[in-house]
Structure formats: C-alpha cells, structure tokens
Amino acid sequence: MHFEILVEDKSGKKALDILVPKIIGDEHTFRVISYKGIGRIPKNLRGSTDPNKRILLDQLPRLLSGYGKTFVNHWPDFPAAVIVVCDLDDKHLNTFLEELHRILETCNPQPETRFCIAIEEGEAWFLGDIPAVKKAYPQAKKTILNAYVNDSICGTWERLADAIFPGGHQKLVAQGWQRVGAEKSAWSIKITPHMNVKKNKSKSFCFFNQTLKELAVIV
Questions:
Q1: Nearest to 188 by CA among 147, 157, 153, 162
Q2: pLDDT per residue as tens digits for the range 132-142
Q3: 8 Å CB contact between 24 and 3
Q4: What pairing do the DSSP bridges indicate for beta strands 113-118 and 2-7?
Q5: What's the rounded Cα separation, in Å, for the pair 60 and 50?
Q6: Given strand 29-34, what is the order of strands in its sheet?
Q7: Distance of CA 71 to CAs 109, 145, 188, Å?
Q8: Would you place residue 177 in the very low, low, confident or very high pLDDT band (cuts 50, 70, 90)?
Q9: Closest CA to 3 of 91, 100, 116, 132
C-alpha cells in the first residue's frame, strides 16, 4: 500500500515523517505533503484554481479529484490511499467530517481516502504520550503535563508550550509567529522519536494509527 498523506503545515510533516514508519513498517510506502495552513472548504466545492496557493482545504477538492484520476489511470494495480490530516481547532467534528466527505463525493472516480482529525490540535498527539515529552524535555513542568486531559479543547499547543518552553506560550508568542512555527517544528523533531504509537492516549491519534494499519492490513 502507498499512502499520500496531506498535512496543513511543516511541523505536521516533520512529525509524520517519523511516526508513520513506526505504524506501517518498511513493507509500505508513503509521502507526507505539507501545506501553508488549513484554510477553509470552498462553498462551491470546486477549490482554488491556483495551485501555488498551498492552503490545504482550499485546494482539497482539486487534490482529491486529481488523486482519483491518478490512482485509476496510473496506478490501477497498485493500492494507494489519501490520508488527510488536519486540526479540528474550533470546528464541530461531525459537521467538519460531513463537509470533507461531501468533497470526496464530488470526485469521479473517488480515491481511497480517509480523514484524520487531530483534536484540538496536532500537539494533542504529543501530549497523548507524556513519557515521550518528558524524555525529549526532561525539564518539562510535570504538573502542567499531568493535568492535561487528552483531546480536550484547552488551547493544546499553548498547554504544551507552557510545559516545555521557558516562559511558556506567552513568552513564545511575544517572539513572533514565525518563532512559534519554528518551535513547533522543533517539538516534532524532538518528541516523535520517543513516541510509542501503541500506547498513545489521544483517541484522535489512535484513530489515525488504526486507519493506517487497517488500510495496510496490519494487525
């Protein structure tokens, strides 16, 4: 099985480049493609006509339609799937999933596709493995980590920053959003090597993990 995994930012790509092989092993192939933000689903479901505007949801109708044709015309005998990974943020989960599936329904042919939503943000998957966070950041504030409720709507990346960044998220934001992005990428690189994909307590990560395993027929 080949996986085309679409994520909304570079930090997500850095994390999944390390995590996906832990899930699917060496017998399958994958490619993680990052975008410059999540954007929003187009009202007409046609998507942006400018591929240079690398915003995930804006481009998603065009991307899924293209994958459907590619899988049929160029990989007819090779199983492949698209995995769309994005943050829930402040959206309603069921409504968001319905909107994503409506995009898929407009594709002819439809590519094998799964939607995996990090609740509330991708950092929830790191906080689902507190031992990995502590190994990457031995000086992390244990009281903050231990008080976290998995997949809760609580300002997830800020909670992680408060635990591991000197001065917390307010000090980090004061340095500018480019600095925030760089720090999130650093978390991805430092935490994910220590993560145990079989023991993560984030339900949204477990869904992503199980989705890949089922498609790859891994038990």
A1: 157
A2: 999 999 999 99
A3: yes
A4: unpaired
A5: 12
A6: 29-34, 2-7, 80-87, 113-118
A7: 9, 43, 30
A8: very high
A9: 116
Which amino acid is located at 60 in the chain?
A: L
Residue 33's SS3 state is strand
Domains located in the chain, CATH noted: 2-122+200-215 (3.40.50), 127-194 (no CATH)
Residue 145 structure tokens: 């980590």
Q: Which two tokens stand for residue 104?
A: 């898929």
CA atoms within 13 A on the CB side of 114: 18
Rg over alpha carbons for the chain, rounded to the nearest Å, is 18
Verify cis geometry, omega within 30 degrees of 0, for the bond prior to 120: yes
Average confidence score pLDDT of the chain: 94
Q: pTM of this prediction?
A: 0.94
